[in-house]
Amino acid sequence: MHIVKIKRSPDEILQNYVPMVHYIADIIGPLCEVVLQDMRNPNCSIIAIRNGYVSGRNIGGPLTNLALKIMEGAPNLQEKFLSNYTSKNSHGEDLISSTYFIRDDEKKIIGMLCVNILKSGFQSIMPTDSRQEQNGTISEHHHRVNEYLYASSDQIIIRSVQDMLDERHLSAENITFAEKKELIFLLKKNGIFKIKGSVPRVGMLLDIAASTIYRYLSQNEK
Questions:
Q1: Which residues pair with 147 in a beta bridge?
Q2: Secondary element (H or E) of residue 207
Q3: Single pTM value for the model
Q4: By the 8 A CB rule, do 100 and 113 touch?
Q5: More exposed terminus of the chain, fewer Cβ within 10 Å: N or C?
Q6: Which residues, in sequence order, are bridge partners of residue 36?
């Protein structure tokens, strides 16, 4: 007898993870934020969240810079999850984060189940024999990842631009056209231009016309 496998829609798959959001949050407690994100909607990706006060986010919040980078540069990422890396909320507080990648029936990443625990309270929920590992080597799957848990897309854009300027010891007021072009390509690589309205916003931050950014991006695609 031939069994026909019914293909599930992305919405069906993601909705199956909603109970997990509440399950994990109830187990770990109030210092733990649990978020379910739909990667198809970068500007309003959060479809379920518990303890959102940890990062200041709510349902309808945007993808993080990490998720955007994965969408742009590693859509076929083979790893099933990233665990125990440091992230920051909009108040500058450190969190210990872990992300599980949700895939559709064709193995494409369509969502993320994220657990973010305030680092100040992380030690209190760790088993005693694991506490000494909390500063960066908690598991063999540890990754050095910079992720910002911000409530708005605008905050993510601003921080991404500023980080790139800081890394190169540049300022937006004193930057050459060649350096601007390089930054545009790097922002593209990091998925920032998947955010709706990002081109004019980046243009304002770098004092460059939106039409010029579009031209640079079209050159990069050739």
A1: 87
A2: none
A3: 0.84
A4: yes
A5: N
A6: 48, 113
